[in-house]
Amino acid sequence: MSDRIEKRIQLNAPVSRVWRALTDYREFGAWFCVKLAGPFVRGGEAVGQITYPGYEHVTWRAVVQRIEPKRLFSFTWHPYAVEPGADYSAEPPTLVEFRLQPGGDGTLLTLTESGFDSIPAGRRAEAFRMNDNGWAQQMENIRRHVEESHGS
Asked: What does the alpha-carbon distance between residue 147 and residue 145 come to, in Å, rounded to a whole number?
């Protein structure tokens, strides 16, 4: 098993549109299926309620690491932290990075999640598998969001 997940997608939308979809908390929530309490702030914790069917009991938490306009947005979080009542705070988080590059008529978006080697062995493989599948779906979600929604 690898320590990292990497997904790439070519989006038929300008970098400015993809950037807004990633960093405006309302837009991020729309495609990511989470109702966030407020804007992303570097160094701050973003908190919200998952809206994806079957996961509505999960509170989404991430700490924003970097916001480099139209280039890089990153946060740390506890991967696949969905068990009701479980305390994941003692676990090291993984790092999620969204990198944007102009490409062709649109934007090349690269998602990387790294740090799985630090996740406790008892849940490492499941967290990796679930997030690998989840990121594949989320890349399709953001594609639909930026290519099919208005307001580019």
From this structure: 6
Q: Where are the domains of the chain?
A: 4-20+64-148
Written as six digits, the tokens of 21 are 């979809």
Distance CA(52)–CA(135), nearest Å, equals 14
- Kindly tell me the sign of the dihedral angle through the C-alpha atoms of 110, 139, 29, 118: negative
CATH class of 4-20+64-148: alpha beta
Please check whether residue 127 is in contact with residue 79, taking contact to mean a CB–CB distance below 8 angstroms. Answer: yes
pLDDT for the residue numbered 104: 83
User: Tens of pLDDT along 11-70?
Assistant: 999 999 999 999 999 999 999 999 999 999 999 999 999 999 999 999 999 999 999 999
Give, in order, the Cα–Cα distances in Å from 5 to each of 25, 42, 49, 54, 105: 23, 23, 24, 24, 26
Please say if the pLDDT value at position 75 is more than 60.
Answer: yes
